[in-house]
């Protein structure tokens, strides 16, 4: 193989550099597309998380309301139970005193 002249070597290098530039531009476009895709995914995920948080808040409010209602119901039942026990105790004491 004959020695290449300086101009031929420079031309060959310029051609290779131009090839790399094209590849670099293509790679840069692909990276930009991936970056946009990641941004869209983040926005979608944030929206889904916000929706899930809203649903959790709604369920929390409903559950709190149900727990409060059950607490009131149990409190009323406890008061009735104590009242019945006091009435039975008074009846027993009255029966023992009346003998």
Structural write-up:
The chain is an all-alpha fold and 99 residues long. The protein contains one helix and no strands. The protein has one helix at 6-98. It is rod-shaped, with a radius of gyration of 42 Å. The protein starts with 5 loop residues before the first helix and ends with a helix.
Please tell me the overall pLDDT.
91
Q: Structural class of the secondary elements?
A: mainly alpha
Low-confidence stretches: none
Compressed to H and E, one letter per element, the order equals H
Percent in helix: over 70%
Q: Describe the biggest sheet? A: none
Strand content: under 5%
Using the CA coordinates, give the radius of gyration.
42 Å
- Distance from N terminus to C terminus (CA atoms, Å) equals 136 Å
Query: Total helix count?
Result: 1
Beta-strand segment tally: 0
Shape: rod-shaped
List the helices and strands and how they pair.
Elements: H1 6-98
Question: Quick summary of this structure?
Answer:
With 99 residues, this protein is mostly helical. The protein has one helix and no strands.
Annotation keywords:
99 residues, mainly alpha, 0% strand, rod-shaped
């Amino acid at each position: 193989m004959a020695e290449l002249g300086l101009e031929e070597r420079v031309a060959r290098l310029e051609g290779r550099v131009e090839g790399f530039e094209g590849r670099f531009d293509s790679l840069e476009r692909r990276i930009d597309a991936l970056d946009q895709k990641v941004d869209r995914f983040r926005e979608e995920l944030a929206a889904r998380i916000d929706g899930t948080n809203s649903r959790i808040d709604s369920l929390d409010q409903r559950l709190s309301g149900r727990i409060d209602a059950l607490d009131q119901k149990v409190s009323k039942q406890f008061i009735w139970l104590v009242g019945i026990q006091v009435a039975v105790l008074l009846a027993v004491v009255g029966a023992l005193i009346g003998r």
